[in-house]
Design a protein that fits this description.
single chain, alpha/beta, Aspartate Aminotransferase, domain 2, Aspartate Aminotransferase, domain 1, seven-stranded mixed sheet, five-stranded mixed sheet, 37% helix, globular
């Protein structure tokens, strides 16, 4: 199905019907698989014969999700994990070793920054943080032992963007692996591999599921790189369950439709917020006033469903607006059909130091909305003071 359009791949790719000839993907809720003989078991464990052994290694439902997402990302291969953070951790720990150096974007998801600062550095891996859009700083931060560039573009929650083609040219010149968290865009809006990235990482918990039902993660890229990461996942065990794989597999079917609707609602909300007296600044890539609007327009199909804005009154003003909502859900998750609202400085980025939040431009008056699929007039009404 390589020649089919994205929407068709999202629905049709990845299915392998069993002998029961089911029309919808089956859920293989089993921890292990049986063998015809002791010889077959030995061959399976030795990887001399293809087939399932144990669901920590492979599972047909998980494979269906992996195959579909790989197709949508134009990747050779895909690995599913138990969460987005396990996907990030598996990538980092496989592609770097003690004595290596990583360059990471400063504006990444707060927990990723905490991971790099408090866990990864325990293994003797040095990390340098840089401003995402600043290509000169990426270049200047390279050391002789730099093995990995890792970033999120657009960043969450401010929507900062880096020129992926230009950064890829830098990474390839120095033989550095470029890993991109594509959670905010999904392959429906951006394909980092086609822009020069080596690895794409997803928290499938977010837009890929799309309804806040379960945790899931994924890594996509070349078969060679993912074979290394697969060994780490198989041994350490952050495996995606068959049930959660089935949920996110079904989520992919409606992904392009949902992302278009998220983008349209977000665009209308950002324009409305831009005209409100209680709003000091709106961060949305779809606004021409956003400093990264043009590069986002060049490497994305649209601008996404995340709108962040700064309100007057500091932290108290932000809390007052959040607490005044009646319909929008107060939760730190994003990518749901339901609109969600959160205060990043005290939730998603709370474990960062005050200085780290300042460097990442996470202010006390910043609010993030993951714009859902409700009628836009109802979303706007819920935010009126």
């Amino acid at each position: 199905m390589k020649d089919n359009k994205f929407e068709t791949k999202a629905i049709r790719e990845g299915y392998k019907a069993s002998q029961e000839q089911e029309h919808s993907a089956a859920i293989f809720l089993t921890s292990s698989f049986t063998f015809d003989s002791a010889e077959q078991a030995a061959q399976r464990f030795a990887k001399e014969e293809q087939g399932n052994v144990y669901s920590r290694f492979t599972n047909p439902t998980v494979e269906a999700f992996q195959d579909k997402l790989a197709s949508l990302e134009d990747a050779e291969s895909c690995l599913a994990t138990a969460s987005g953070m396990s996907a990030i951790f598996a990538t980092i720990m496989t592609l770097s070793k003690p004595g290596d150096h990583i360059v990471a974007s400063r504006g990444m998801f707060g927990t990723t920054t905490v991971l790099l600062n408090t866990i990864v550095n325990r293994f003797g891996i040095e990390v340098t943080f840089v401003d995402l859009p600043d290509l000169v700083t990426w270049q200047d931060s390279i050391q002789s032992n730099t093995k990995l560039f890792i970033l999120e573009t657009p960043s969450n929650p401010l929507g900062e963007v880096v020129d992926l083609r230009a950064l890829s040219a830098i990474s390839k010149k120095h033989n550095i692996i470029l890993a991109v968290d594509n959670c905010v865009m999904t392959p429906a809006l951006q394909k980092p591999l086609s822009l020069g990235a080596d690895i794409v990482i997803h928290s499938a918990t977010k837009y890929i599921d799309g309804q806040g039902r379960c945790l899931a993660g994924a890594i996509a890229g070349s078969s060679e790189l993912l074979e290394e990461i697969s060994s780490f996942i198989r041994t350490t065990g952050p495996t995606l369950s068959a049930f959660n794989a089935w949920v996110v597999l079904k989520g992919l079917e409606t992904l392009p439709l949902r992302m278009r609707a998220h983008c349209e609602n977000a665009r209308q909300l950002a324009n409305w917020l831009n005209d409100q007296s209680f709003v000091e600044k709106v961060h949305y890539l779809g606004l021409e006033s956003h400093p990264h609007h043009q590069i986002a327009k060049e490497q994305q199909c649209d601008f996404g469903g995340i709108v962040s804005f700064e309100v007057s009154g500091g932290k108290e003003g932000a809390f007052r607006l959040i607490n005044n909502t009646k319909m929008i859900s107060i939760t730190a998750n994003l990518g749901d059909t339901k609109s969600t609202i959160t205060h990043p400085a005290s939730t998603t980025h709370a474990r960062l130091s005050e200085d780290e939040r300042r460097q990442s431009n996470i202010s006390d008056n910043l609010i993030r909305i993951s714009v859902g699929l409700e009628d836009i007039s109802d979303i706007i009404d819920d935010l009126k003071p």
